[in-house]
Amino acid sequence: xxxxxxxxxxxxxxxxxxxxxxxxxxxxxxxxxxxxxxxxxxxxxxxxxxxxxxxxxxxxxxxxxxxxxxxxxxxxxxxxxxxxxxxxxxxxxxxxxxxxxxxxxxxxxxxxxxxxxxxxxxxxxxxxxxxxxxxxxxxxxxxxxxxxxxxxxxxxxxxxxxxxxxxxxxxxxxxxxxxxxxxxxxxxxxxxxxxxxxxxxxxxxxxxxxxxxxxxxxxxxxxxxxxxxxxxxxxxxxxxxxxxxxxxxxxxxxxxxxxxxxxxxxxxxxxxxxxxxxxxxxxxxxxxxxxxxxxxxxxxxxxxxxxxxxxxxxxxxxxxxxxxxxxxxxxxxxxxxxxxxxxxxxxxxxxxxxxxxxxxxxxxxxxxxxxxxxxxxxxxxxxxxxxxxxxxxxxxxxxxxxxxxxxxxxxxxxxxxxxxxxxxxxxxxxxxxxxxxxxxxxxxxxxxxxxxxxxxxxxxxxxxxxxxxxxxxxxxxxxxxxxxxxxxxxxxxxxxxxxxxxxxxxxxxxxxxxxxxxxxxxxxxxxxxxxxxxxxxxxxxxxxxxxxxxxxxxxxxxxxxxxxxxxxxxxxxxxxxxxxxxxxxxxxxxxxxxxxxxxxxxxxxxxxxxxxxxxxxxxxxxxxxxxxxxxxxxxxxxxxxxxxxxxxxxxxxxxxxxxxxxxxxxxxxxxxxxxxxxx
Amino acid sequence: xxxxxxxxxxxxxxxxxxxxxxxxxxxxxxxxxxxxxxxxxxxxxxxxxxxxxxxxxxxxxxxxxxxxxxxxxxxxxxxxxxxxxxxxxxxxxxxxxxxxxxxxxxxxxxxxxxxxxxxxxxxxxxxxxxxxxxxxxxxxxxxxxxxxxxxxxxxxxxxxxxxxxxxxxxxxxxxxxxxxxxxxxxxxxxxxxxxxxxxxxxxxxxxxxxxxxxxxxxxxxxxxxxxxxx
Amino acid sequence: xxxxxxxxxxxxxxxxxxxxxxxxxxxxxxxxxxxxxxxxxxxxxxxxxxxxxxxxxxxxxxxxxxxxxxxxxxxxxxxxxxxxxxxxxxxxxxxxxxxxxxxxxxxxxxxxxxxxxxxxxxxxxxxxxxxxxxxxxxxxxxxxxxxxxxxxxxxxxxxxxxxxxxxxxxxxxxxxxxxxxxxxxxxxxxxxxxxxxxxxxxxxxxxxxxxxxxxxxxxxxxxxxxxxxxxxxxxxxxxxxxxxxxxxxxxxxxxxxxxxxxxxxxxxxxxxxxxxxxxxxxxxxxxxxxxxxxxxxxxxxxxxxxxxxxxxxxxxxxxxxxxxxxxxxxxxxxxxxxxxxxxxxxxxxxxxxxxxxxxxxxxxxxxxxxxxxxxxxxxxxxxxxxxxxxxxxxxxxxxxxxxxxxxxxxxxxxxxxxxxxxxxxxxxxxxxxxxxxxxxxxx
Lengths: 679, 230, 443
Description:
heterotrimer, B: about 70% helix, C: alpha+beta, Immunoglobulin-like, Cytochrome Bc1 Complex, Chain D, domain 2
C-alpha cells in the first residue's frame, strides 16, 4: 500500500489542528492530548463502537456471573445456597442485563463501527447524537446496576445507604420482577424500589436505543457513497436498517407501558390496578408488542454478521442476496404480528389463539429461507475453517436447533405444556447464545483484526469455539427434558421427589464449561491485543468496503470517496473486471471532520442523576425529588447548549490513498490468508 | 436515489451557523435533519397509538365508568382550541415559507403567532383540566357533576395521561419556537438561510404532527363519545 | 499454516466427546415422573402430547434433512490442507426455482402442524357436553338444584401468594392446596387470582392456563378417559355396555392416583413453593369425600357444641390444662390470632378468609402448599410426619416460605415484614405444638 505509515495525523496547512472555539465561545475539545478528554468527548463512530463493545462485554460477564450463581443454586434439589428473593433478583438482572446491556449494545458496537465503513461514509449522520446515545446507554446501565450497590451497602449495614420504608428496612432494592415485569407483581403493592430502578433504567436505555436507531436509519439511507445502491449494500448493513426500524417502532410500546406503570406506582393512576378496574393483561399486550420485535432486534444483527462471514470464507457471494434481505424484512414485519404467542396461556379465546399460532408458524418460513440460503452459500464454495467461520457455522447449527423448538412452541396447545417451563428456557438460550452470542463472538473474531490491526494468536480460538458450543449444549439441551418433565421456570428450588436433580446438575456443569469458554475468549482477546502480529488491511480476503482501508482505520475512514460499481464491491474490485474497480475520488476541500463535544456526555449525566434519584426518592430519602429535578435540568441544559454550540468541524487533507492495491500488506505467519489472495 | 449526486463525506448535525457549511446532497436528496424528524414522528406515532389504544380499550371494557364523558366534555371549548391549533399550523407553514425566502421579519411575526396560538391551546387545556378536577357548579354553587382526577377509575388515568402527553408535546413545541424566535435575533440565521430554513422546517414538521395528533384525539376521544351506537 | 488449520480436528473431537456423553445424561431419567408431560393421563394432556409429538417428528425430519445437507456441504467443500490453489469458486447469486421450491416445501411442513393445531385449539377451548359428566349422573347429593344436576362439576381455583384455594360452589365446600375430582368426568375449572398472576399447571392432566386478577379465565380438564372414550381407544364400538369391569380395571391401573401440579407463572418471592395436588378417585369415593368434607369441625372437647366449649374455655382457661388438643384450640383462637385469616367451619369465631380453610386440614397429605409432604406410602396420612410438619410450619413459616403473610406481628396485613424481628412469633414452640395437635384432629 502506498500509504503514509506514520501514526500521527496528517497535518493540514489550513487548520494546523488547533482547537477552535464553539459558537458559545467555549474551546472545543478537539485534538486533545488527554486520553480521557479525547474518549469522553469523541464523536468518532469507531471509538463509540469500541466503547459500546467494551461495555457490552463487561456486562456480558456480569450477567454471566449472575447466571452461574443461579445454576449453582439449582444444581441440587431443595438447595439453600441463596434466598428465594436473591434468586429472583438474580434472574431478573440476568435477563435484563443480557438483553439490554450485553447483546443489544454488542450489536450496537458492530452497527457503530461497521455501518459507516461498509457504506463508505465519513461518519454517522449525527455524530454528537451518536455520542449522546452511547452515554445515555451507559447511564441506564449504571442506574440498573446501582441497585446492586445500594443493596450491598444495605447488607453491610452502612448507615449512609440505609434505605427504609417506614420503619422497615428494605431488602428488595434490586429488581425482582422478572425482565418482563408483569403487572400487578411489578406494582407498588408487590415489589419494592427495585421496580423503580427497573422502570427508570429501561426508560433511559429506551431513549438511547431510539436515538441511536434514528441516527442509523438516516445514516444508511442518506450517507451511502456514490454507487452504493440499496441493493449493493452489505447484508449486515441491511439487517442494521431493519433492526433500527424495529427499535423505533417497538420501543414506544414499552416506553408507554413503563410510563403507565410508573404513574401507577407514583402518581395514583389505575392502569394496572385491579381494584380500580385496571387490567393486568394490558401490560402483557403492551410488553410483548415490544418484546417480540425485541427478539428480532437481538437476532437480526447476528444474522447480518453471519451473512458476511459465510461468503468470505466460502469465497462465494451470498446465495440469494435479495431474498435473504427480503426475508429479514419479512421477519421484522411479522415480528409485530405474533406477540400474543407469548400469551397463549392467558385465555385469549380460540380465534385469537389460532390466529397467532398460525402467524407464528408463518414466521418460520423466512427464517428457514435464511438457513437454506446460507447452506446455498456454502455449496460449491471453498470453506476455510477459520475461527470466525467456525462460529458462523456453529451459529447456523445452533440457531436451527433453537428454531425447531420454536416451531414446537408455535402450536398453541402443545405450548400450553411448554410455556413457562424449562423447555422455553432451552429454546431461547439456543437462539440467544447459540444464535446471537455465537454470531457476535464470530463477528469479533472477524473484525477485531480490522479494529485493532492485529491478528489472533495461535489456535486458542478453536478451543474457545469448541468449549462454548459444547458448554452451551450440555447446559441447555437437558433443559428441554426438564421442561417436558414439568419443571417450571423462575423457581429458586425444587423438590427432590420430582427427580429433576440429576439433569439440573448436568446443566450446572455445562454452565461452568460455557463460562470457561467465555473466559478463554477474553484471554484470546487479551493475547491478540498484546501479542498479535500486524494483521494487514485485508487478512481474510474480504468482500466489503471496510477491508479496503487500513487496519485500524484512520479516524477519517476514507482518504477519498469511493465510487461503488458493484455488490461485494471490494471483492469485485480485487477479482472482477476493469469495470468493477472502485473509483477513489478525492475531495478538493479536504475531509470535513466533526468537532468533538462535551455536551452529549453532560446531558447524559442528567439521566444518570435522574435515574438514581428517582427510585431512592421512592424509598423515602429526603431531597431526592429535588435531585431528580436537578438531573432533568442538567439534561435539558445540556441539550440546549449542544444545539447552540454549532456543529463545528475542520478539514483534513490526508496524503495517503485507499485501496490502491488489492494485495494485503505482507504479514507474518499470524495472518491467515497471505498465501492465497493472489489469483 | 441519485448516486452521482451523493457525496457521503458530508456531515450534518444539530445546531446552527458555522463558518464552513457545506450543504452537500445526501443519497436520497432528503436532508438528514428532515429525515430524522420524519422517523422520529413515525416513532412518536407509536407512542400516541399506544396511549390512544389504551384509552379506547378501557372505554370499551368499562362503557359505564365513574365518569360520563358526554356530560363532562365541553365540546364548544375543545372545538375552539382545536380550531386554534389548526390555525397555528397555518401560521407555521407561513413561517417556514418566510424563512425559505429569507424574510426574517415575516418569519418572526408568524412564529410569534404560532407561539401565541399554542399558548391559547394550552390555556384551554389547563382550564379544561381544572374544571375536570374540581367538577362543575351551577350559579348557586351546587355541584352539577363531580370532578375526577388521575385516580378516578381507568377513565381518569387514560384520559389525563393521554391528553397530558399531548399537552407536553405542545408545550415543548412552544418552547422550541420561542427558542427559534430569539435565535433569529442573534444574526446567525442570516448567515445561513438554507440551514436555518431547514431548522425551522423541522420544527414545523413537529408542530404539524402535534396538530394532526390532536385532530385524532379530538375525534377518537371526544367526538366519538357523542355517537349513539344503539 | 494458519490458526484454523487443525480446527476441524479439535472441534470434531469435542463433538465426538459430546455425542458419547449425551446418552449418559438421560439414563435413569424418570420419563413418567410425577409431573411429566410425556405421561399424559387425560384427554387434554393427551391431545397436547400428541400434537407435541407431531412437531417433534416434523422437526426431526427437517433436522435430518437440513442438518444433513449442512454437514455434507461443510465436509464436502472444506478446504483441505495442501490443496492446490484453485480458481475462485463459481459465483452464483441464487436460483429462484430452488428458493421457491424450498419455501413451498417449508410451507407444506408447517401445514402438517397447523391443521391438527387448529383442531386441538378448538377441542381444548370447547367443553364437551356429555351427559355422563353431568353432576346428577354420578353424584347423589340431594341438595343439588335440578339446574346444577345438568352442569358439570365446577371447581373455582383461586390463586394467592403462594397457595391455592379450591372451592366447589355447587357442593358448598372449600379446600386448600389439595382437591379431589372423579375419574373420567369433565370438570370445569374457574381460574381466579386474588393478588398477582398465577398459572394452573397439572402436567399429566392439562397444560396451563393463567389466573389473572380481574379476568375470568376457565379451562376444562378430565382425568382419564370416559367410558366411551376408553371404548374407542380400545377399538370397540361406542355406547356398548358390557365392558364396565375392564374399564374399571383401566382406571384402577392407570388413572386413580395423586397428581401433582405447580404454579407456573412467576408470582413473587416464594413462587417455587406454590404447589398443589389433585387426587383422582372413583365417583363413589368422590361422593364419600364430599360428604366428609361438608362436616363441620367438632368442638375441641369432642362434643358438638362449640358455644359451650367456648364459654368454658374463655371462662377458665386453666380447666383445659392437661389436654393439648383443647389447649391448642384455645391458643389458636386467642394468642395465636390464627382466626384473623383462617376459617374452621363450626367454630363461631374462626372465619378468616386470607389463608387456607383449615376445617379439614388434618385430612390433607401436605402442608405449605404442597411443599411439606406427609403422605404415607399407601396414600394416607403419616401422622408423625404431619405433626412435625405442622409444628415446623407454624413456628417458622417465614423460614420455610419467605414473604408469606403468616406471621404473628402487630399488623396482620402489613406486607413488608422483618423476619429478623425477635417478636415476630410470640408463640413458644410448646404452644405451637399444642396448636398442631389440635389441627391434626381436624380430619
